[in-house]
Amino acid sequence: MSWSGNICRSPAAEAVFRNLVSKCGLESKFLIDSAGTIGYHEGNKADSRMRSASKKRGIEVTSISRPVKPSDFRDFDLILAMDRQNYGCLSIHLICVSVHLFFMPRCLMHFYLEQCAEDLLSSFERWRHREPLPDSAPKKVLDLLEDACESLLDSILAENANVAA
């Protein structure tokens, strides 16, 4: 089973999305964070290879690893899973949190997994079948993340006209 310790894909996605939002001048409209489904790497910086690959694109990965916490389901309007295993783990977290939280003042949770992360997974499948994987695999991950984050931001802005205003 694959679990996320929040040191590679999710901090890279956070940094890519943060960079994109910043370029659009929308920093004040978003609260962007990443978290893992396990706390194994809690307190650690992101993987040095991912930080290096991102930095070459002008994207700083500065997040510190942390596990998902119950308040995330209250504080964030949108929580994305990086793969099916993490989606399942987040669903279990949500069920446990729902038992303890009787009132959620904000939108509980949207999983764009079917829309955005499925696109990311299918893109990965297309890259994976190019044998062998190139030495530039981290670059490919960043390509996928940039495409997915651009689509995600476009979707958010289309659904929330007031965000871009």
Protein described:
The protein has 165 residues and is mostly helical. The chain has a single domain, classed as Response regulator (Rossmann fold), CATH 3.40.50.2300. Helices cover 53% and strands 0% of the residues. It is built from 7 helices and no strands. The chain has helices at residues 9-23, 48-55, 72-75, 84-100, 113-128, 137-159, 161-164. Residues 99-119 have low confidence and may be disordered.
Walk me through the topology.
Layout: H1 9-23, H2 48-55, H3 72-75, H4 84-100, H5 113-128, H6 137-159, H7 161-164
What's the short version?
Helices cover 53% and strands 0% of the residues. With 165 residues, it is mainly α. It has one domain (9-164): Rossmann fold, CATH 3.40.50.
> Whole-number average pLDDT?
76
Q: What is the CATH class?
A: Alpha Beta
CATH architecture: 3-Layer(aba) Sandwich
CATH third-tier fold name: Rossmann fold
State the helical fraction. 40-55%
Structural class: mainly alpha
Unreliable residue runs:
99-119
The CATH superfamily bears the name Response regulator
Rg, alpha carbons:
16 Å
User: What is the straight-line distance between the termini?
Assistant: 43 Å
What's the SSE pattern?
HHHHHHH
Beta strand count: 0
How many separate structural domains? 1
Count of alpha and pi helical runs: 7
**Gross geometry:** globular
Largest sheet: none
> DSSP strand (E) fraction?
under 5%
Organism: Oryza meyeriana var. granulata
Domain Phosphotyrosine protein phosphatase I: 4-155
Protein name: Phosphotyrosine protein phosphatase I domain-containing protein
Pfam family, one: LMWPc
